[in-house]
Every structure is written in structure tokens, then in C-alpha cells.
Specification:
Blueprint: H1 9-12, H2 14-24, H3 41-53, H4 57-84, H5 90-95, H6 104-124, H7 137-144, H8 147-158, H9 162-175, H10 180-190, H11 209-222, H12 226-253, H13 268-290, H14 303-318, H15 321-334, H16 339-351, H17 356-359, H18 365-387, H19 406-424, E1 449-452, E2 462-466, H20 471-484, E3 494-495, E4 502-507, H21 509-517, H22 523-543, E5 551-562, E6 573-578, E7 583-585, E8 590-592, E9 603-608, E10 613-615, E11 618-621, E12 628-632, E13 639-643, E14 650-653, E15 655-668, H23 676-687
Domain Fe2OG dioxygenase: 545-669
Biased composition (Basic and acidic residues): 691-702, 713-731
EC number: 1.14.11.7
């Protein structure tokens, strides 16, 4: 029998023991030798943080950057050495087939020693022995949450290197989208002269390219560009497999802590088995790591099968029947008895019945290898659970039952059923809104009438009110939008973030006031924008019978315009179906209340200013994001209000001609999430001797600061800096 490292993981575990011995051997663990070997990245990080708190900004930038670059090189070197040493010692394995079986174990140890020596030599070419030791869990957390970039953005701000500060801030924010201070900092950077849009780059983007491809594929599907969708889904599948292999290689190469003495006496083989199972568990958990977006808590379940499902449909619609058959047969490796997939396969093979080659096409080779390897690893892991008291959490829903030992099947079935129920939860009879708001309260503003309520809107906690604005008020705000929106909050007439067929402009209350102070718009029009928001707040607070004090979360005047010449054959939406305070997952009908959703939002409202455009209708939808439950046609003074949670998915149909303008508002009961921009505008008006309606305010927050840790946010106030927010969302 020929033995390779990928097929006998129990003995591979000895690699850890030898590797640990080799890298810690020698005369001391100096952090950096005269030969120029790299020091531990955690040492650079500690030095950088110490310099940061001493306000030694030059040294802080130097060491923080060194920590990031050294860690990046460590990961790359591990992968390089993994590949270079993959076949080291294989000649000794081949001899075992011809020798006495009683010497087989010694031969295995000889092979492992050769492999470990190769790894030690390869890694030792670039790194000092100390740099190869495990780092603490705290350091792993710091880099996992991208906290070095949190320090760097302030450091570069102090050094007046604004482009670098913006890049660091953006990189941190991608993985921490609920960090309010960083959101505000980013908006400030966008308004600093000399900071260009290309400065806002994710420096960790290389590890996330499969998500860019995933989003590009979804976008191509939404515009029915099936040829492009096929291309992007193939790229996404390949990149997902590549990132998974990268993660698995890191599991093999990273240094392991060898326990000094376990609670129970174990022999060499028992320890080797435990380390081996830990290695396999690490490799299996790469599925979860690769399928979790930066800044998200939960992984996308069945991430790879999901991509294959999208790919075979796109291939069929693009006319690539052979490719569709190949992809569908790959998907069936995950779920061999899935009725929908089997029906689709029958359809595809009937469609290509004259093409024998297409009919006989098998699954993708790389997917077949992926499945085979995963099943081998799962068998060993479940064996360890049943016989060695090993703890393992299977990351896959597709694991077949026959992999699980009989003694574990009852528990396994119960857990799997529970997970499936959580994911399905679909066939609901009636949505229940647990927000604590109840529609049906009084409408306290004279001239405002209820046009549509829950019953007419086929839902819960929804309302359409008319008469909120007069035509002259609509005209004034439209004029404000015309003059100022293109100079507003950063979109500046660019293509919409939701569709390439529309332009998007936005304006906040604070920005309107600043433009008024510069003489670009009328002060009265800027104040009208503020006053309209107060009227909407009164209406929402009363009609939905708010159970606690209501605060503005964000106010945004938005206009979206159809781009001439880009409307033919259009099938996308101006704003896809979404929920305002959670992440909607139509496939499972779940709505995950976690970042990057604005989880603090409680009530949503959109006040329309015009109707001289085509399309642009607001609609409520079911959680499947396909079934429309109610449509609302915009017109001057019409307000749509609703609770921000999962009972109210909504979207906007394509604007195919003209310009659609509306004032979008969100409200929260959480004081710490109130709109600081709005309060700053009120303070500026008050300083000019003009009274405005103001909410009770708590302690302010500075516009630019580091939270000193990714786990907390500071509360110091800085009056000499501009406060901004960046909650760019609209209805």
C-alpha cells in the first residue's frame, strides 16, 4: 500500500511533536538575529501599541505596519513551505510496502522526521525561532478583529497622512460595521480635501475575493446577464476552493502548543491521535471560516453547494447544457437524493439527448475530490467522538448519516433536525411583530389622513398617510435637492449603490445647513428639511404608539434618477428587497439581527416629494423576497411608515425615467444610537440664536478616535472636531 500524508492523518500528528521540538531547540529564542530573520509579529504589535499610548506616532506607525506585514509574510511562508515539503520523505513511505510490517511504525516516524526537518529549514530561512512559536489568544483576537488598523487610522491622522488613515479606517470598518465611531470617522475622511475615493480600500481584500465574486454573480443574475453570471459563479467556486485550501494549509503549518502533562496519563500514540483529530477539526472548520463574511457572525450555510446551485441554473439559461449537467452532478454529490436536483438533471439530459458527450458528463473533478476528502476526515472525527471523547462540531448540513457511528446517530439526528427547523421556519401562517409597537394610534397633525392601513397593506404595523406636505413645501424641498444634493453626502450624482441603471444623490440635515451657511441654499429651506423630520417623528410616535422615547437614528433626502440609454430590457430593482434592522436571507426566510444590519432601528418612514417619474414604486414583500404583498405609488406629501423589523421586507421598483426624490427617516429607542449629525445641526442653529426642537441629549462623542480595543468604544468628547455619521441607507 502507498501511504501519503493526506490519507493517514493519525500519524501526521507526529509532525506537530517533531516540529515543536525542532523550532524550540537551540541556544535561546532571540526575537531577531543578526542574519536578518524576522521577529515575532506580536512583538512588533506590542511595541506599536506602547508607542501609540506614548503619542509617539512615527514609531507607532512603524511597528504597527511591521506587525501586519510580518504576519502576512508568515502566512505566505507557511503556505510556501507547506507546498515545498508536501512530498518530503515520500521515498521512505514507498519502501514500507516491501519491508517487514513490524517496522512500519518506525518507518512512519522516519518519514515524519524528514517532513519536519524540511518544514523547519524552510521556515527558518525567513523567521527567527521565536517568530515560529504560537501567539496568545489575545493577539489572535486583535488581528482577527483587525484592531491594528483601528490604531493605525488614528496614528496616520495624527501624522496628517489622511489617505493612509482613510485606508486603515475602511479596512477596520469592513470587519466591524457596527462600530459607530469608525463610521463617523470614515465620513469625515470623505470630506477632507485630498482624500480620494480610491483611498478607501480594504487592505485585507485578498482573503475576501470570493465574496466580491459572489456579489458580482448575484448582480449579474439580477440583471439577467446569464453569460456573465456563469463566469462569475465559476470564479466564485474556484476562489472558494482556493481559500479553503489556504486555510487548511495554515492548520497544518501553524505552531501548536504541546500540553505539558494531561489530566490522565497518555502514551505517545494517544497524544498523536488527539493532535491529529485537532488538525482534522481545524481543517473542517475552514468551511465555516471561508463562508463567513467579514463583519458577520454567522456563516452562510451550505456555501459551496449554494454556489453550485446558482451556477447550474445560470449555465442552463446561458445555453451551456454540458456545463449545467456537470455542475448539477457535482451538486448531487452533496445531496444525492434531492428531488429538485434529480428533476433538473432529467430535464437537462432530455434537452441534450442528441449530445452523448454532454449526457455522459460527470461531476467536476475538484468537487469530487473535495467530497471524498471531507468524508474521510469526518469518519475519523466521528470515530474520535465515539471512542476517544473528542469534541467536534460538524460545519456541514450535507454530511450523510452513514458517516456517523451508530452510538451517536440519535443525538446527531436530533441536532440536525433542530438546525433544519431553525433554517426552514418557513411555512408561517401569520407574521408576528415583537417590536412592541402597535399600529392604529391617533394622527395628531391637522390635514393628514390615513390612506392605507395594515389591512389594505396586507401586513403588520404598516401605514400610508397623505397630506403630510403641501405642494409648495414639496416644491421647496425639491428645489433644495436640485441645488444641493449633488454636493451632499458623498454620492454626488454617482451611479446608485444598488443598480448601475440609476444615479443617486443624497443630502443630510447637517449638510444642508452647512451649504446654507456657505450661501449655496436658503437657510429657510434647510430649516424646513429639519422641521419636516420633526413632523414625521410626531406622526410615527403617535400612530405606532411608541412604548418609549423615540430618537432620530438617521435622516436622508435621497434622489434617484434613471440614466438615459440604460433602461432597455431592464429587469432589476431600484432597491432590492431588504429589511432595515436585520439581514434578510430569502432562501431560509430568516432575518439575522446582526452586523452589518442597522440593528438599532425600530421605525422606518419615507416621505415622497414628487410623482413626475416612471417606475419607482415602493412595495412590501414576503420574506421570500419574491412575493409582493402591497404596492404604494409615490406622490407629494405621501408618507409610508412601518416597523423596521422582519415583518416588513420592502423594496423599490426600477426608476425607468425621470427623477424620484424622497425623505427617508429612521427612528430608534436606543439613545446611544441617536443621530449625532442632526444634533450638531441643532447646536449650530442654537448658536445663531435660532431655536429648534431638540431632543434630550446625553454625553457627546468625538468625531475621530480609536476605541483602543476592538471590543469597546471611547466616550470622550471633542468639541473642536466635526462629528459625522455614515449611515447611508435609503428607501
Amino acid at each position: 500500500m502507498a501511504l501519503h500524508s493526506n490519507t493517514n492523518p493519525v500519524y501526521v500528528a507526529f509532525l506537530f511533536i517533531f516540529y515543536y521540538v525542532f523550532i524550540t531547540a537551540g541556544s535561546g529564542l532571540s526575537s531577531e538575529s543578526s542574519s536578518g530573520l524576522l521577529a515575532p509579529y506580536d512583538e512588533h504589535y506590542y511595541r506599536g501599541v506602547r508607542a501609540y499610548f506614548r503619542d509617539d506616532w512615527e514609531r507607532a506607525a512603524e511597528f504597527l505596519e511591521k506587525s501586519i506585514s510580518t504576519r502576512d509574510k508568515l502566512l505566505r511562508t507557511r503556505r510556501k513551505c507547506h507546498d515545498e515539503c508536501l512530498t518530503a520523505g515520500d521515498d521512505k513511505i514507498s519502501k514500507l510496502d516491501k519491508e517487514d510490517f513490524t517496522l512500519w511504525d518506525l518507518g512512519i516516524l522516519d518519514w515524519i522526521q524528514v517532513r519536519a526537518e524540511c518544514v523547519r529549514f524552510c521556515m527558518g530561512q525567513s523567521f527567527s525561532p521565536a517568530a515560529l512559536l504560537p501567539v496568545s489568544l489575545d493577539i489572535e483576537y486583535e488581528f482577527g478583529t483587525r484592531n491594528p488598523y483601528n490604531y493605525l487610522q488614528v496614528t496616520y491622522y495624527k501624522l496628517e497622512k489622511m489617505a493612509k488613515a482613510a485606508s486603515a479606517a475602511h479596512t477596520f470598518f469592513v470587519a466591524n460595521p457596527s462600530h459607530l465611531e469608525m463610521r463617523n470617522n470614515l465620513e469625515k475622511y470623505r470630506r477632507i480635501l485630498g482624500v480620494k475615493e480610491e483611498s478607501f480600500q480594504d487592505r485585507e481584500r485578498e482573503q475576501e475575493q470570493h465574496w466580491e465574486m459572489y456579489d458580482a454573480a448575484i448582480l449579474a443574475e439580477s440583471s439577467s446577464d446569464w453569460v456573465k453570471a456563469v463566469k462569475k459563479w465559476k470564479e466564485c467556486v474556484n476562489e472558494t476552493l482556493k481559500q479553503t485550501e489556504e486555510c487548511r494549509a495554515q492548520c497544518v503549518m501553524m505552531s501548536q502548543v504541546i500540553p505539558e502533562e494531561p489530566d490522565t496519563v497518555q502514551g505517545l500514540y494517544e497524544r498523536a491521535a488527539d493532535l491529529s483529530l485537532s488538525l482534522l477539526s481545524c481543517k473542517q472548520m475552514c468551511v465555516t471560516l471561508v463562508s463567513t463574511r467579514p463583519g458577520r457572525v454567522s456563516a452562510v450555510e451550505d456555501f459551496l453547494p449554494l454556489q453550485l446551485e446558482h451556477l447550474h441554473i445560470a449555465q442552463f439559461k446561458a445555453g451551456d447544457l454540458k456545463g449545467a449537467v456537470e455542475t448539477l452532478r457535482s451538486l448531487l454529490l452533496f445531496y444525492p437524493t434531492d428531488s429538485d436536483s434529480l428533476s433538473n438533471l432529467e430535464l437537462y439530459t432530455q434537452t441534450v439527448e442528441v449530445n452523448t458527450e454532454a449526457q455522459e458528463t460527470g461531476p467536476m473533478q475538484e468537487i469530487a475530490k473535495y467530497i471524498s476528502r471531507a468524508l474521510q476526515e469526518k469518519r475519523l472525527l466521528y470515530f474520535g467522538m465515539a471512542n476517544l471523547d473528542f469534541k467536534f462540531s460538524d460545519p456541514d448540513l450535507w454530511t450523510p448519516e452513514d458517516i456517523v457511528p451508530e452510538s451517536l446517530r440519535e443525538t446527531w439526528r436530533a441536532e440536525k433536525e433542530k438546525l433544519h427547523e431553525k433554517l426552514k421556519q418557513g411555512e408561517k401562517v401569520e407574521e408576528v411583530d415583537d417590536s412592541g409597537f402597535y399600529a392604529g394610534g391617533p394622527v395628531p397633525v391637522v390635514g393628514v389622513t390615513i390612506t392605507m392601513d395594515d389591512q389594505r397593506l396586507n401586513g403588520t404595523n404598516r401605514v400610508v398617510l397623505d397630506g403630510v406636505l403641501s405642494q409648495s413645501e414639496c416644491d421647496r424641498v425639491m428645489q433644495l435637492a436640485t441645488v444641493a444634493a449633488s454636493m451632499g453626502d458623498g454620492y454626488r450624482g454617482r451611479r446608485s449603490p444598488h443598480t448601475p441603471h440609476e444615479k443617486f444623490e443624497g443630502l443630510t440635515v447637517l449638510r444642508a445647513l452647512q451649504l446654507a451657511q456657505d450661501g449655496l441654499v436658503n437657510q429657510s429651506d434647510a430649516r424646513l428639511l429639519h422641521e419636516i423630520g420633526e413632523t414625521v417623528k410626531v406622526l410615527m410616535d403617535s400612530y405606532f404608539r411608541s412604548h418609549s422615547v423615540l430618537y432620530f437614528a438617521y435622516t436622508h433626502l435621497v434622489c434617484r434618477s434613471a440614466i438615459p440609454g440604460h433602461q432597455e430590457g431592464r429587469s432589476d430593482l431600484s432597491h432590492p428587497v431588504h429589511v432595515d434592522n436585520c439581514i434578510l436571507e430569502p432562501e431560509t426566510r430568516q432575518c439575522w439581527r446582526e452586523a452589518p444590519a442597522f440593528t438599532h432601528r425600530d421605525l422606518s418612514a419615507v416621505l415622497y416629494l414628487n410623482d413626475d417619474f416612471e417606475g419607482g414604486d415602493f412595495f412590501f414583500a414576503d420574506r421570500d423576497a419574491k412575493t409582493v404583498t402591497a404596492m404604494v405609488k409615490p406622490k407629494c406629501g405621501r408618507l409610508v411608515g412601518f416597523t423596521s423589523g422582519p415583518v416588513n421586507p420592502h423594496g423599490v421598483t426600477a426608476v425607468t425615467a425621470g427623477r424620484r426624490c424622497a425623505l427617508a427617516l429612521w427612528f430608534t429607542t436606543e439613545k446611544q444610537h441617536r443621530d449625532m449629525e442632526r444634533e450638531e445641526a441643532e447646536e449650530l442653529w442654537a448658536a445663531d440664536g435660532k431655536s429648534v426642537v431638540k431632543e434630550e441629549k446625553g454625553e457627546g462623542e468625538s468625531a475621530l478616535k480609536s476605541a483602543r480595543s476592538g471590543r469597546s468604544q471611547g466616550k470622550e468628547r471633542s468639541k473642536d472636531r466635526e462629528r459625522v455619521t455614515g449611515r447611508r441607507d435609503e428607501l
